[in-house]
Amino acid sequence: MTNDSSFNLMDKIISLCKRRGFIFPGSEIYGGLANSWDFGPLGVELKNNIKKLWWKNIVFQREEIVGLDSSILMNSKVWEASGHLQNFYDPLVECKQCHNRFRLDSLPVSPADPEKKQDRLSCPLCGGELTSEKKFNLMFKTFLGATEESANAVFLRPETAQGIFINFKNILTAMRGKLPLGIAQIGKVFRNEITPGNFIFRTREFEQMELEYFVNPQEADSWFNYWQTERLTWYDSLGLKRDHLREREHNLEELAHYAKKCVDIEYQFPFGWSELEGIANRGDFDLKNHSQFSGQDLSYFDEKSGEKYFPYVIEPSVGVERAFLAILLDAYAEEHDENGDLRVVLKLNSKLAPIKVAVFPLVRNNEKIVKKSREVFNLIKSSFTCDYDVTGSIGRRYRRQDEIGTPFCLTIDYQTLEDDSLTIRERDSMNQVRVKIPEIIGWLSQMFNS
To answer: Is residue 343 situated within a structural domain?
Structure first.
């Protein structure tokens, strides 16, 4: 997929995102800030829809899973216990000539001996010699209070998981929990990436949707397989094409310091197959280490077996922005209409669409049509996310809504004034039907729920 047309697709997505209010470059009026992005009005809606659907699937539809919103700033001992202070590094090299920095594992290797790191090719930008490998910690460091002393050092969290682990006992007690027990969290995380890029795919500030699923160690393998299947099924439900998804298991050298096993669900992005979501068996690493470092007993007493043990943890973890990008790429289409004109359309699942319904008066210089259009808009806006548009011809308004993925457009015309019906135009097929205004909420609800 990594060809000119694929990268052209990425350019089109970036252009659409800015033009239609999905994503803007961060701090743009000041020249920008590298790899920072602001989600605009439609981007916020799409992002929220992704998070709501994840939360509904993970938390609301399961009896044994609850939610948490933990603090971004935590005691630094948390990161010592989790191993992030010792192990959360990327291999860094710098060009001696142009002084650009790169992740060593992202550089091409010598065809003569691809296994040896020292045989990496020269600087990909200028051809200059690269320095030897250095370890670069990815955590952002800051200080609490007025003085920058080591005792006051804290870190912006690089994952939401640790907030869950340190609250395991609190939630177990408060919610009268028994295994299996899941704790879900959505929140901002921060990683000082050496080479962020590919639009919103790899950024230094992003949102994670993470589930920590605590299980009996003897049942860890079966629960891992369960969540692997469940997560693929969720992407199916969003409408992602299955041939754009694959599973890849990490080899031993790739595994994180805490992981016993990890499988990535990868998506075929324009720049190649890359991780969309990771599913890891974290074993008992986290609870055992936090027990040791804190002096608090985080083990679990199993009333059925009479055993006391540290639960194993199965962790499905996905970045909201990566899901956002994959959804846009999968939904983007260019088609010719019945007149041979090119239209751009986002064929988003209606559950994801930022705007569900658009309302148009056929003309804006007829007071009765405009008044009736406003009545329709006010009638449905409490039930669906709506847009009211009077600018340009009907054709132009249809095209704008196609480009942002709006499933249905409602047009109030002269016939509406006679029989109280309106035209509903469906996005993908462009088919049109007439429906009576009193029936419109029921009709739309049926369409969205079908």
So the answer is: no
Give the domain extent around 315: 4-86+143-328
Same domain, 95 and 17: no
CATH code of the domain containing 397: 3.40.50.800
Claim to verify: residue 178 and residue 43 sit in the same structural domain: yes
pLDDT, tens digit (0-9, with 9 covering 90-100), for 122-156: 888 888 888 888 777 789 999 998 877 777 889 99
Same domain, 322 and 212: yes
Q: In angstroms, what CA-CA distances link 185 with 61, 163, 189, 388?
A: 15, 9, 11, 35
Q: Kindly state whether residues 165 and 305 are assigned to the same domain.
A: yes
Taking the C-alpha atoms of residue 411 and residue 426, their distance in angstroms, rounded to an integer, is 12
End-to-end CA distance of the chain: 33
For residues 215 and 284, what is the distance between their CA atoms, to the nearest angstrom? 10
For residues 207 and 319, membership in a common domain is answered with yes
Contact 355, 444 (CB under 8 A): no
Q: What is the pLDDT of residues 186-236, one digit of tens each?
A: 999 999 987 778 999 999 999 999 999 999 999 999 999 999 999 999 999
Burial 157-184 (b: 16+ CB within 10 A, else e): bbbbbbbbbbebbebbeeeebebbbbbb
Q: What is the number of structural domains in the chain?
A: 3
pLDDT digits (tens, 9 = 90+) for 392-405: 999 999 999 999 99
Query: CA geometry: angle at 429 spanning 419 and 325, to 5°?
Result: 120
Q: Are residues 237 and 284 in the same domain?
A: yes
416 and 306 belong to one structural domain: no
